[in-house]
Known about the structure:
Blueprint: E1 2-4, E2 11-22, E3 28-29, E4 36-37, E5 42-48, E6 52-56, H1 57-61, H2 68-71, E7 79-80, E8 85-88, E9 99-101, E10 106-111, E11 117-122, E12 125-130, E13 135-141, E14 145-156, E15 159-161, E16 164-171, E17 193-195, E18 199-200, H3 202-211, E19 215-221, H4 223-230, E20 238-239, E21 247-254, H5 261-269, E22 274-278, E23 281-282, E24 291-295, E25 321-324, E26 333-336, E27 344-345, E28 351-352, E29 354-359, E30 364-368, E31 372-377
Parallel strand pairs: 16-17, 17-19, 18-19, 19-21
Antiparallel strand pairs: 1-31, 2-14, 3-5, 4-13, 5-12, 6-11, 7-10, 8-9, 10-11, 13-14, 14-24, 15-21, 16-22, 20-23, 22-24, 25-26, 25-31, 26-29, 27-28, 29-30
Amino acid sequence: MARAYTPGLKVSARTRHRAERLLPIGGTVTVAAGDKVEARQVVARTLIPGDITPLNMASLLGVPPADVPECMLKKVGARIGEGEILARTKGMFGFFQSERLSPVGGTIEVVSSVTGQVLIRGEPLPLELEAYLAGTVVEVIDGEGCIVEADASLVQGIFGIGGEAHGNLRLATRRAGEPLDADAIHPDMRGAVIVGGARVTGEAIVKAREVGVSALVVGGIDDADLERLLGYDLGVAITGSEDVGLTLVVTEGFGNIAMAERTFSLFGLREGAEASVNGATQIRAGVLRPEVVMPFTDRDGELPPMPPPGGEPHALDAGMPVRIVREPYFGLIGSVGALPHEPQVLESGARARVVEVKLDSGGNVIIPRANVELIESG
């Protein structure tokens, strides 16, 4: 069993963590600086403009586009209900009139005498923004949101899917190298954040969704199981908007990889704590890592000593096991082959120092050295 050491990923027993909570459009902030907030507490709210429904009114009424404004019973800016009469032709001597009902409720935004189009803006959709993190509001950004701060344990993963989730932290395995299978998932785990050791099986994911688990945090996952979970091959560098019934955070990589001992030990020390989880991942410019945040409360004491970190990564050398952390080979495992000394020209036209990786799945690839991380044997 290999144990992955991931440079740049944070595993901290206690740190000061900040969460920036911003609305997508202007709204109302409901908290003030200094307020104590819970993870699920609303800190800001706004109204998102509804969808636009286009209607070719000239065609629907059988009139020239220039006649559409005269046929409208409601003018631009007026509200209209679903099923309400929207437009009516004059007909002939009061007969043979044609009328059209509004298919949606909303506000009339555009009536065009050039195209004969009518645009109806649907009812605004309320949006409430939660604190995500149990802590203290340290800054309010007028009309936009706030920043919440807390002393917390923090674990970043290499990859995740799904948005924000919350729940009581529970260990489903007792060893970092123990896979998470379906037998370890129980009905009383509904709403919990479940930690497994090594690879999570596809059956365990299915059962976790059925039980209502809030989030899964595991060492590894197989490509095939991930594809079955999503229903498609991910193949992109940004995640977080997937609607799969739970949030998933992978701390090490793809395949049957054990969770790092230090990471697993930290989860063990914080078992029972309320955790906030976000699976959003971005592996290109502006790297965003999935995370598990476990704020401390007034009831929590000092943690026992943690196992020491693995230290700084060693220099690359031939034969060393590595994991690729950038597309298009993200998550694949292999070993270092050749290490050309001189920079080489990449397909993008850029020059960089490269490494040849002999993939465990077969074949060799040549990629920038910055695109790999070492896997420490143990």
